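Quick review question:
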């Protein structure tokens, strides 16, 4: 990006998992390198080609590992003259699957914000892809005040429903897919997104309808496109991709080909296709079966899911004695795929997608653009594609008789085959070009209000804060203080703060009101903080004069509806409003009796069902607080750190309850002090930058200062170093 004055929108696309590069995409390598990978790259290029778009950045995760191309280690890769791929570090350098990314997403967000601070301008739009990017997108949108657009690609509730129907238990599903965190992230992004883009009406009406925050008015169906320069009917001499493999596998390679092309994933339902072919002498007589299921060197080296699928394919081929009739090539290049479609079309063959469910179905568009009729699952995106293009047949994916009948109809009736092929060419050109997609996309985001946050020009805070490169923020109750028994350690901590006043910013982040917080600090002779974050992140004050940051109040007022939230919770058992003095314009506070009240998860679900966008905090086993979605201790802390240019890596945060969790995730150095409520934070135990102290309250903070060598290296000790 050249400068901050460029014309046109600056669009930030987020797609975190998998392996993304601008050329030779490794599609089908594993479950994380499927259609979404190609979608986001093509979307970035299509948007960047428009005059009303100034720049597009596609943000993904940087990967450095043996056996992985060095392309994925490059921090920046150009896609076009107005687009590029940016790779952000998060967690381990090696390649990990999306289910293992969750604990690293807060760090990804913090690193991304650092990168954005170095750019000449903020994005106009953030567009997240899939649940993990949605999690990041929500936090980025809330911190920077940016409109958020989201595309789910596939949805956790729908997937869990189908896995349960297959007989898996909830425990098995959770262990394999981290499903609870995924669904919670999807619920959160639906509550916060300004626009949700889907590929099909099926997604809107059946899949998103499963969610608590279901609002079809915020959704737009914009089908993805296909590259018509790459995917097109045969021109000139016949191409012969995979020629050696076809001859090696097939006795009669001249017969029409039934093509299945997908990842070796159980959900793609390739095994049912092989069984259908194996049980149909007529299909075997009329056609060969070509299965392209990713790339492999050795099945034994693949992940367990892919290994099982491919092994079972080979076992079925053997069981039905299909040798000479089925080709299962080990490798293909991404650039060969268009020629493969054209080869199958030239043979008079058919493309089939028998997936149990298909969120969209890019391969159906590619086939259609290549002049190849299709048979596809009736679950998901293919319904819309076939309805628009009239280029094939829909089938129940587990009905082998229906699959056989649909394939035979196209293979045996040349008029039906030709009609489907011609319809597909016309339909794709009309409905599914990337130019049409980009046109519709820009018309929808043009309707979004531009409410991005720029740091305020006026500066009510003490200028001295700008010259300090580290900070300590701590909660009060059950973190810093706990009655008289913590007085000695409080005195020691306070003395250390006074001693280092010139080098460290001291902050308090509490759920208390400002007056009761100040009274408690006075009682225990705690020095007045440079920054006081009160009301669970809803108010920020600076310096001796306690000058309020009015800009923060304006920022968090976005989509805040306390009256609606209050009405929703009014009649719930076990909830009692705290006294009026404990309420504020940006905080609803309740006493909660867990023996009578709904669970916190049920309360959150109820608020989402009523379209209340808010953060919910439960602390110390009895206090329930509702605040705006842009407000929390962690968000307020990051705003302050960004404003005064204090690296999060040099911020030590201390807490002891669930309300402190979002301060501790990400790049901050954190300590969970030892008290009776630290079990609310036990899910942080495996995180590198979170230290669980053996001492309670101020003593635990002092312990962490030594652990991190806060006034020296200011970092967790390296492996092998003494603690």
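Suggested answer, residue by residue:
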């Amino acid at each position: 990006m050249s400068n901050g004055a460029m014309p046109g929108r600056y669009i930030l696309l987020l797609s975190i998992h998998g392996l993304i590069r601008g050329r030779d995409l490794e599609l089908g390598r594993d479950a994380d390198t499927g259609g979404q990978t190609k979608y986001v790259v093509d979307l970035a290029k299509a948007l960047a080609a428009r005059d009303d778009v100034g720049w597009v950045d596609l943000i993904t995760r940087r990967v450095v590992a043996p056996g992985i191309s060095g392309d994925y280690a490059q921090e920046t890769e150009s896609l076009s003259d107005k687009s590029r791929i940016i790779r952000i570090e998060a967690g381990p350098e090696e390649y990990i699957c999306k289910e293992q990314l969750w604990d690293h997403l807060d760090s990804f967000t913090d690193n991304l914000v650092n990168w954005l601070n170095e750019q000449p301008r903020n994005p106009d739009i953030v567009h997240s892809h899939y649940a993990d990017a949605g999690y990041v997108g929500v936090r980025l949108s809330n911190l920077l005040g940016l409109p958020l657009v989201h595309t789910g690609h596939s949805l956790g509730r729908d997937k869990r429903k189908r896995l349960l129907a297959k007989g898996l238990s909830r425990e098995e599903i959770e262990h394999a897919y981290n499903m609870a965190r995924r669904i919670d992230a999807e619920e959160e992004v639906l509550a916060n997104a300004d626009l949700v883009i889907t590929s099909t009406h099926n997604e809107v009406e059946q899949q998103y309808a499963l969610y608590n925050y279901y609002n079809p008015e915020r959704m737009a169906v914009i089908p993805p496109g296909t590259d018509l320069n790459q995917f097109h009917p045969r021109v000139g001499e016949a191409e012969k991709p995979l020629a050696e493999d076809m001859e090696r596998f097939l006795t009669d390679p001249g017969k029409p080909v039934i093509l299945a092309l997908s990842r070796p994933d159980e959900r793609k339902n390739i095994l049912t296709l092989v069984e259908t072919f194996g049980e149909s002498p007529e299909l075997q007589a009329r056609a060969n079966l070509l299965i392209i299921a990713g790339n492999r060197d050795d099945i034994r080296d693949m992940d367990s899911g892919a290994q099982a699928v491919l092994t079972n394919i080979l076992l079925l081929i053997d069981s039905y004695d299909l040798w000479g009739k089925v080709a299962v090539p080990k490798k293909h290049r991404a650039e060969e795929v268009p020629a493969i479609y054209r080869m199958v079309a030239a043979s008079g063959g058919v493309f089939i997608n028998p997936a149990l469910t298909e969120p969209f179905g890019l391969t159906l568009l590619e086939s259609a653009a290549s002049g190849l009729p299709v048979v596809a699952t009736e679950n998901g995106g293919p319904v819309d594609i076939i309805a628009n293009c009239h280029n094939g047949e829909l089938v129940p994916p587990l009905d082998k008789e229906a699959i056989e009948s649909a394939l035979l109809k196209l293979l045996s009736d040349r008029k039906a085959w030709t009609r489907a092929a011609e319809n597909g060419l016309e339909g794709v050109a009309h409905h599914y070009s990337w130019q049409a997609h980009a046109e519709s996309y820009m018309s929808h985001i043009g309707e979004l209000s531009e409410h991005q946050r720029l740091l305020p020009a006026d500066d009510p805070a003490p200028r001295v804060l700008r010259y300090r490169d580290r900070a300590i923020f701590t909660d009060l109750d059950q973190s810093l203080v706990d009655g008289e028994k913590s007085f000695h350690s409080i005195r020691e901590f306070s003395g250390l703060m006074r001693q280092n006043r010139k080098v460290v910013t001291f902050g308090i982040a509490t759920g208390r009101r400002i007056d009761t917080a100040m009274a408690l600090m006075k009682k225990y002779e705690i020095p007045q903080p440079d920054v006081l974050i009160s009301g669970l992140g809803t108010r920020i004050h600076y310096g001796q004069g306690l000058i309020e940051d009015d800009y923060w109040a304006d920022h968090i007022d976005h989509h805040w509806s306390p009256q609606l939230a209050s009405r929703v919770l009014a009649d719930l058992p076990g909830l009692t409003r705290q006294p009026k003095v404990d309420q504020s314009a940006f905080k609803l506070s309740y006493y909660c009796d867990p023996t009578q009240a709904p669970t916190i998860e049920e309360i959150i679900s109820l608020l989402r069902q009523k379209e209340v966008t808010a953060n919910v905090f439960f602390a110390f086993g009895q206090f329930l607080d509702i605040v705006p979605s842009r407000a929390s201790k962690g968000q307020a802390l990051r705003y302050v750190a960004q404003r005064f240019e204090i690296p999060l890596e040099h911020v030590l945060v201390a807490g002891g309850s669930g309300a402190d969790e979002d301060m501790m995730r990400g790049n901050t150095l954190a300590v969970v002090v030892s008290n009776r409520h630290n079990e609310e934070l036990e899910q942080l135990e495996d995180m590198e930058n979170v230290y669980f102290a053996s001492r309670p309250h101020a003593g635990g903070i002092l312990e962490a200062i030594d652990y991190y060598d806060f006034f020296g290296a200011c970092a967790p000790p390296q492996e092998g170093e003494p603690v």
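Why it works: Residues 559-629 form a domain with the Hypothetical Protein Ta0175; Chain: A, domain 2 fold (CATH 3.90.1070.10). The mean pLDDT is 92.
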